[in-house]
Amino acid sequence: MAAQAVAAAQAAAQAAQAEAAESWYLALLGFAEHFRTSSPPKIRLCVHCLQAVFPFKPPQRIEARTHLQLGSVLYHHTKNSEQARSHLEKAVSAGGAVSGEALGDAYRGSSRGTARLWGPPRPRPTPYLTSPWLISQQIPQFEDVKFEAASLLSELYCQENSVDAAKPLLRKAIQISQQTPYWHCRLLFQLAQLHTLEKDLVSACDLLGVGAEYARVVGSEYTRALFLLSKGMLLLMERKLQEVHPLLTLCGQIVENWQGNPIQKESLRVFFLVLQVTHYLDAGQVKSVKPCLKQLQQCIQTISTLHDDEILPSNPADLFHWLPKEHMCVLVYLVTVMHSMQAGYLEKAQKYTDKALMQLEKLKMLDCSPILSSFQVILLEHIIMCRLVTGHKATALQEISQVCQLCQQSPRLFSNHAAQLHTLLGLYCVSVNCMDNAEAQFTTALRLTNHQELWAFIVTNLASVYIREGNRHQEVLYSLLERINPDHSFPVSSHCLRAAAFYVRGLFSFFQGRYNEAKRFLRETLKMSNAEDLNRLTACSLVLLGHIFYVLGNHRESNNMVVPAMQLASKIPDMSVQLWSSALLRDLNKACGNTMDAHEAAQMHQNFSQQLLQDHIEACSLPEHNLITWTDGPPPVQFQAQNGPNTSLASLL
Hints:
Keywords: Cell cycle, Cell division, Chromosome partition, Mitosis, Nucleus. Its main location: nucleus. It comes from Galemys pyrenaicus. It is found in: Nucleus, Nucleoplasm. By secondary structure, the protein is an all-alpha fold. The chain has a domain at 45-198. It contains 27 helices and two strands. The protein has helices spanning 2-36, 43-51, 60-77, 81-92, 102-105, 143-159, 163-175, 181-197, 201-217, 221-237, 241-257, 262-282, 290-305, 325-343, 346-366, 370-390, 393-408, 411-431, 435-448, 452-468, 474-483, 495-511, 515-531, 535-551, 555-571, 575-591, 595-621; strands at 113-114, 320-321. The protein has a two-stranded parallel sheet with strand order 1-2. The radius of gyration is 30 Å and the shape is elongated.
């Protein structure tokens, strides 16, 4: 009896001691969380509260978690990367036995992972990330600290450009996490993303394939679909279309058959449909994509009506989501803008760009995710091209400058968009008749890209520059035209780019005076552009055919081409084609003795000329106009104002 009494007393004392330990720890944790979530956050006080845990000599599991929390706070909220790394490494080395403890839950980050391959990892604090990894390895079954610390620490290494340190850390964590489905999947996604950022898409695809098979084995069809869709996205980037088609078919079946959280199901459908839409748009199939795009727009409307109630799945491997709902909305706006621009619905493109940019500004006030800047740059790239077509060069130039500023803030963003930026500057140079600068910009863009579709787009535009300049670059021009010969081995599968190549060949034949050959090329362009509703190419081809018939003296046939070209150009609206068409209508009606119609067309031509001239002068007077001379290194930070425009207006009038 006495022994039992002693044992009971010891147990009571231990319970009281544990309760006391719980009290001081929870108190410090509560204060830390209060300071972290204050408005504005009081990070220094939060860090002091967490550091105050260590003098109490807490149990190893609490020590490891505190190192993790300190590392996370420092990584996300400060620039003290060295200290963040130190704490995380200690946490990683301590990992162990207590998973999902109540004490840790009070200050744990979100339990839901994010399967993101659309942008670089979000920046997070550094020094306190190392300690949790070291400590957590010593505590059996302490997976949540061990793997979260490894995940954060590898992100920190990547942020410091120490990718070679991040890879083995993630590989080891993946190797020992196979009994923990959530963390095993999350770490596979993370390592795949790291390889993607390094442009090693083969290794990334292999990891995503491993993840898909693992998810199937542990009974998570939802996460299996995420892995497969992510792999499909990378295969599209690699242009491995023979592998993409069966993979997307399988994904479609999995998505339709999966029964689960409605928001998760709809987000899978959005991911699947985004891949389908971008695949069609990459192929230049603007008309064929319409049913998929309509489904995608309906799907995002459905998601916006669903409540965001957190329903934790029973399978821990299902604790992922592709993108936040708000990010998906912006993405759907973005692909709608891409479609509208290719189809020549430029007012619609402007409308959706305005909506998307407004949404992005709201999101960026609360979220520093790099993917938002990527969305913003891609939106601006597309609307800049629209503005150059609609005769708003000054606005386009200011938006090019805005893209430069965004790229200055992120070396990775600049690396991914440098070629596009120089391409946009080349298009701007063409619009203001600075052909030497256009050539320099397009040549720089070619040097910076290995993307086949972008390469073909640049070469097509560079060829048009050489054609306009006459005999200056005949040898180079013939070489370029042979490389984008649509009759033979065209380098890309894009329907739109191939149609554009036929147009450029027709333009070249027109300038060479080979009118029958020009008509053949332009009729091929018309056939292809009509098949996929490529309105701008249709308008350009019609007006050039009209010009050819006018030169040949066939005024009736010329009129049959120019009138629909003018109508279509007004609908787009395309200022250059309207200017060209109005000049032809003026000359046609004058030749046919239609004085009133000739006067009306002349007045239209005068109005378009004045609008373009005013915009031309405004654009060339901006300090940003000096960007046309930038062909090397990062974007210039400042621009010096010019005394006035230095470009010829002859091509506009």
